[in-house]
Structure formats: structure tokens, C-alpha cells
Design a protein that fits this description.
This protein has two domains: about 210 residues, Immunoglobulin-like (Sandwich); about 40 residues, no CATH class. Helices cover about 30% and strands about 40% of the residues. Helix 5 packs across helix 6.
Length: about 250
Amino acid sequence: MIARALFLAASLLLLGGAREPVLVPEISQHEIQVRQGFTGADLLLFGAILSPEGTRAMQGTDIVIVLEGPARSIVLREKQKVAGIWINADSTEFRSAPTFFAVASTRPIDRIIDDKTAAIYELGLKWLQLSPIGVIDPAEQRRFSAGLVDLMQRQGLYQQSDFAVHTSGDVLYQARIALPSSVQTGTYTAETFAIRNGRVVASAITRVEVRKEGFERFVALNAENNGLIYGLFAVLLSVGMGWLAGRLFALV
């Protein structure tokens, strides 16, 4: 796979004649199948970076990889303890929040790039743009955004790893990012940034599809596209489980 990345980089150099460094990313698998008993996946993201002349271009260059899952609206509710009972208090809804967000870098982001540029490219959890629906006080927005990030981090769905990108020979780089078993299906985008002297000098994108297969795919597709069949199946499954449980208890 590393040889493939080098071959692609050399081909682009011969054909393109670009002035900026050429970044060619790859990923260990472009499709992840979610079946019963799925325990997660370990993705290897790797590639090569060369100068337009075909020489080594990694020297003095940092690599940042951002793996982002499909976005969806999320309602975040704050719990409050009243008379010894936890109840829902304030809440807010985020219009579009990634269901998975991971950042891997050669060094801590604040040592690689300034805050303004990091915010533009969303290079890190600190600079993840989460837009609430409706008017909300800026302080409240920051509090709810921090709460969402903390919640997703504890579930392994938001990650940030400094020194997680390893380089070799001033040409190759690689990093591993773990997807937990609770990941959502959909298209995941892996964007790799080459940064030198605080400036993004090259970027490239690869994608991976996370999809359900087998019985889980059948259930998911019918739940989304055919409510009648899904409803009938759910009723029959409930009746069957109830009948089986009754038979088992009758034999005891």
C-alpha cells in the first residue's frame, strides 16, 4: 500500500508539474461492513508527500489528518438535580454536528498553526464549528458546545491525538484511528493537511463507507424506506419471542 502511494505521487508529479508539494493519501480500507457483533474498526491512514521535483518534502512539514463522519442534527439536554431527582433542564439543538470526528497530528496543533487558521480548517476539537439552531447567548453556546464535545469524547466518537502521525524517510506518513462499535453508517471523509511554517501547503481527501450488511442492513433499509414491512416484522418478532418464552416457561 505504501508503494502504491509513492507510485501515485510520482505519476502526479510527472503529469501535473505542480509548484506546491504533492500529497497522496491512502486508507487501509475504503469500506467497513457493520454486522452483528461488530466491535469497531482500526483504520490505517497513510501516504506520501513529495516536492514538485520529486525530492523529499516532509522535512519541516507537519501532517494533520481529520477523519469526519456524516453530520446530523443533535439535541443536547442539560441535566439538573431537583429535590434529589435528576431532570431535564436547559437544552439546545445543533443544526449539523459530525457523528464522528477525529484528529491526528505529528505535534500538538497549537505548535503547528495559529488559532485563526486552525479554526478555518477545523483542525482540532477546540476549533470544531458547532452551530446551534436559533438565537443563543454566546456564553451558553460555548457551554453547550463544550458539553457536546465532552459527551462524544467519553463515547469515543470525538478524538484528538497529538504525536499520532508518524513519518518515515521525510516522505511517508501514517496514523491509526479507531472507530468504536457505535459509529453511524454513512460516508466518512479523511482529509490530510501538509503544514509548513504555519501555512497549509497541500491537502487531499480520501473516503471510507461504513455500511450495515446482512440482517442489520435488511432491518435498517426497511425501517427507513418501508415502514409497513418494518412494522409487521417487528410485531411478528415480538409475538414469536413471546410465544417462545411462554413455551420455555411451560417446560420448566
